[in-house]
Amino acid sequence: MPLMFTLRTSIISGFTRILALYGLCASLVLSLGVSQPVNAASRLKDLVSVEGVRENQLVGYGLVVGLNGTGDTLRNAPFTQQSIESMLERLGVNTRDAANMVTDNVAAVIVTADLPAFSRPGNRIDVQVSTMGDAEDLRGGVLMVTPLLGADGEVYAVAQGPIAVAGFAATGAAANITQGVPTSGRIASGAIVEREVPFEFASMQQVNLSLKNPDFTTAKRIATTINNAIGSNVAQMIDPSTVQLVRPAGFDAPLIQMVTDVEQLTVEPDTPAKVVIDDRSGIIVMGANVRVSTVAIAQGNLTIRISETPVASQPNPFSDQGDTVVLPRTNIEVDTESENRLALVENSVTLQDLVNGLNALGIGPRDMISILQAIKAAGALQADIEVM
């Protein structure tokens, strides 16, 4: 009886060690031998924008003073003179009867800015200043108080301050040089917000998520991912560019809290098969879903070279007859690149296969553009071609 017990104990102990060893090997295989493919998932906040949460464009007209003789010529820019007279009248100076006003230290400018969403009165925003007249340089200039108007004609911000110009211009008696654009500058935090754009986000019961790149498949994936994460049917695809998000019953937090939670979800966007071509610079960009059927391609150019090597013909030495003349010599070479043969581009499964097949032709980007267009015309390219 003790012998049988000892034997059973040894068998059980050995079997336990085998199971432990097998588990260790399995974990090593999972951690070292098997690698999961990395997908191209992106955060939802990078794929969509919340409808209604956007910037608003502002524009205004103002004057820049303090220029070092590089402002507008009042003879060529009468609006600048009228603006100067109006500004001085508001400050209590009458210049209406002044004749032949001459100043080249003032420039009329257009001021533009983007009012961010949820901007409150007192916040500061950046403004861009650009000349309207024939001013040559805005360096050293100071923008006077300029109201910035929205599309509805209301004043939403007021800009003022010194202008920072990245470019410069230098002129001499016989030469001049210009670096950058000295007629345009920027004022960091140069405008103060005076009015906010009303948008009651907290009281909303639903909101639309607008896809930055509209696509049926991507919109469906976004709606499915949101519903799986929340656990209820709160997201619905309306069209390829819109996913509607509804606050579920019993959700006590504001809708903005739900948007904050779902924008961190990751979704793998689907991209259409497209080839983008810039013929001017020879740039070719192909998407990951571009495919090509098996085609045979031959590429060659006819090159004709004509070279002139005239030869001078002179009479024999000490000869009384004959004149020196120039005889033409023309050499014509024709290169038909007859050594080029048909190259086979096999049916591609991945983008790498397609790139390898096209690179095997040994041609440059310019010829590659023509070949891609010819493949598309033959119906062998399963992608859209967009020419920039």
What would you say this structure looks like, in words?
With 388 residues, the protein is an alpha+beta fold. It is built from 7 helices and 25 strands. The chain has helices at residues 2-33, 44-47, 78-90, 216-230, 255-262, 351-359, 365-377, and strands at residues 42-43, 48-50, 56-65, 107-115, 124-131, 142-149, 155-162, 168-171, 176-179, 184-193, 206-211, 235-239, 242-246, 266-267, 274-278, 283-286, 291-292, 295-297, 303-308, 311-313, 325-327, 330-335, 343-345, 381-382, 384-387. The strands form 9 sheets. A 6-stranded antiparallel barrel has the order 3-4-5-10-7-6. A 4-stranded antiparallel sheet has the order 2-11-13-12. The longest helix has 32 residues, at 2-33. It is flat and about 110 Å long. The model is unreliable at 1-39 (pLDDT under 50).
Question: How is this structure best summarized?
Answer:
It contains seven helices and 25 strands. The chain is an alpha+beta fold.
List its traits.
single chain, 388 residues, alpha+beta, six-stranded antiparallel β-barrel, four-stranded antiparallel β-sheet, 24% helix, 32% strand
